[in-house]
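Batch job 17 of 40 flagged for manual review because the log was empty.
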Amino acid sequence: MPADRGAPELAAPRSPRRRTKPGAAKARSNFELYAWVFMRISGLLLFFLVLGHLFIMNVLDGGVQRVNFGFVAGRWASPFWRTWDLVMLLLAELHGTNGLRTVINDYAERAQTRFWLKMLLYTSAFLVVTLGTLVIFTFDPTL
């Protein structure tokens, strides 16, 4: 088939900007692939966990006006509900942290800015997971 003589020739695409030093060898890793797969799986699990939580709390258990210290104490007497809440906490925090990590990588242009934003993100995620897990495991209604 003859080429269209009137069509303009496309210029070669620009090469992506390098974030590493020109001489440095870059180690190959599948981390981004695993992070992508994690986002899909955790998003699906969170969808069912959160909708189940909302349905049970707002429809089956009489609404949010019933939620107080005694309600939480009774609910967390069961290992099932502690596990449900712990899994929901861990997945939500890791899912959100991974999403923000991707946003930081996409929009923070300077390496130093990227580093400090990610350190702030990882520190806050660690604190939220640690405190949430501590509350779930050490909750004692008799105190």
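Reviewer: the log was empty due to a logging misconfiguration, but the result itself is present. Residues 73 and 141 are 6 Å apart (CA to CA). Unflagging and moving on to job 18.
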